[in-house]
């Protein structure tokens, strides 16, 4: 059995048309053609403008402070609703992934975490059907408050700290739906040295 990624694509890119952009993203309509009458003239692709090694465009971090998980409450205009999320952002020029995620953590929360305590949790594609992006996830173990939380970005409202059992209740109650957050929590709880969940 072949693994994912070894098969040839079932269609080809015939033409790409840029239809919009902002400071962070380019938006394209791709014309895809292939066998079995594949002819899609306006396949939407949203692509970050900046990538670093291995195709990463962003980072996200699960902050752990005194055994609790810090999450941000953010109003997301696209879904017209509130969302509980871990801090995340784009990689800036000249940064490696750890430097980038440490900066994002401090900017969004006021928390600091020693680089030796920033542990990789693998990567994810947040929306492989549309978004041409790859995010590296991290856990920040033993974070400390360096300055009080201040909402500095659009939609950001507050930061709260959750015990593991309360966090899992919110997940099962569908209060946490953000993919980066859910996957980071899952991978963190399955690390060898992660704290146990509720009995």
From TrEMBL:
Gene3D superfamilies: Nucleoside Triphosphate Pyrophosphohydrolase. CDD domains: NUDIX_ADPRase_Nudt5_UGPPase_Nudt14. Keywords: Hydrolase. Residues 54-184 form the Nudix hydrolase domain. The keyword Transmembrane helix does not apply. It comes from the Bacteria. It catalyses: GDP-alpha-D-mannose + H2O = alpha-D-mannose 1-phosphate + GMP + 2 H(+). InterPro entries: Nudix_hydrolase (IPR020476), NUDIX_hydrolase-like_dom_sf (IPR015797), NUDIX_hydrolase_dom (IPR000086). Its cofactor is Mg(2+). Pfam families: NUDIX. Belongs to the Nudix hydrolase family. NudK subfamily. This is GDP-mannose pyrophosphatase. It comes from Nitrospina watsonii.
């Amino acid at each position: 059995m072949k693994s994912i990624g070894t098969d040839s694509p079932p269609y080809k890119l015939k033409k790409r048309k840029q239809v919009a952009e902002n400071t962070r993203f380019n938006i394209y309509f791709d014309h895809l053609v292939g066998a079995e009458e594949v002819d899609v003239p306006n396949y939407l692709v949203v692509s970050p403008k900046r990538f670093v090694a291995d195709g990463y465009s962003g980072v996200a971090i699960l902050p752990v402070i005194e055994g609790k998980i810090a999450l941000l409450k953010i109003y997301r205009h696209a879904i017209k609703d509130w969302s509980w999320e871990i801090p995340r952002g784009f990689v800036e020029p000249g940064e490696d992934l750890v430097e980038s995620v440490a900066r994002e953590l401090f900017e969004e929360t006021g928390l600091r975490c020693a680089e030796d305590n920033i542990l990789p949790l693998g990567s994810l594609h947040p929306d492989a059907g549309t978004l041409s992006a790859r995010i590296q996830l991290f856990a920040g173990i033993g974070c400390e408050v360096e300055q009080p939380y201040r909402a500095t970005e659009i939609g950001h409202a507050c930061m709260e700290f959750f015990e593991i059992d309360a966090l899992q209740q919110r997940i099962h109650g569908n209060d946490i739906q953000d993919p980066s957050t859910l996957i980071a929590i899952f991978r963190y709880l399955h690390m060898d040295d992660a704290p146990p969940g509720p009995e």
